[in-house]
Amino acid sequence: MKPVNLAEKLSQFSSHWDPHVIADYNGNDIMVVKFQGEFPFHDHPETDDFFLVLEGEVVLDIEDRSHVMGPGELCVVPAGVTHRPRAEREAKVLLIEPAGTPNTGDPATAAGKPRI
Q1: Contact 69, 60 (CB under 8 A)
Q2: Mean pLDDT of residues grouped by 10 in the chain (116 residues)?
Q3: pLDDT at residue 104, rounded to an integer
Q4: Alpha-carbon distance 30 to 97, whole Å?
Q5: Gap between the Cα atoms of 110 and 116, Å rounded
Q6: Three-state SS annotation for the chain
Q7: Nearest alpha-carbon partner for 95 in 1, 37, 44
Q8: Beta-carbon neighbour count of residue 19 at 10 Å?
Q9: How many C-beta neighbours within 10 Å does residue 107 have?
Q10: CA–CA dist 106, 1 (Å, integer)
Q11: What distance in Å separates the CA atoms of residue 100 and residue 43, rounded to the nearest whole number?
């Protein structure tokens, strides 16, 4: 058990839409990721999706509406709700999902989640 420095973890990679696991919490992956551009619309039929903006601005398109989030703001997308995050400029985000949840909602198209 030791503290995790989010800035140090985020400095270890430059890719976008590539979540990296930094800790475990009650069967959940706590991850950091960098957003830039648009992620495809998707859903997670069996789990909520947690987004906390650390740096930058993220637009979270949720079905028929959009939410603009800045640093320190979070949103929980309920299970089964179609959504898409996007960011015009690079944004840094903390995600929490049950371990093994595919980031696209589909294991065939999901990014790997390396541990750093």
Answers
A1: yes
A2: 94 96 95 96 91 98 94 96 97 93 72 82
A3: 67
A4: 7
A5: 18
A6: CCCCCHHHHHCCCCCCCCCEEEEEECCEEEEEEEEEEECCCECCCCCCEEEEEEECCEEEEECCEEEEECCCCEEEECCCCCEEEEEEEEEEEEEEEECCCCCCCCCCCCCCCCEC
A7: 44
A8: 24
A9: 9
A10: 32
A11: 15
**Count of C-beta atoms within a 10 Å radius of residue 10:** 20
List CB contacts of 51: < 8 A, sequence separation 6 or more: 58, 60, 69, 74, 75, 76, 77, 85, 93, 94, 95
The predicted pLDDT at position 59 comes to 98
- Residue 1's pLDDT is 78
Please say whether the beta carbons of 6 and 32 come within 8 A: yes
What is the predicted pLDDT for the residue at 35?
Answer: 97
pLDDT at 75: 97
What's the pTM?
A: 0.91
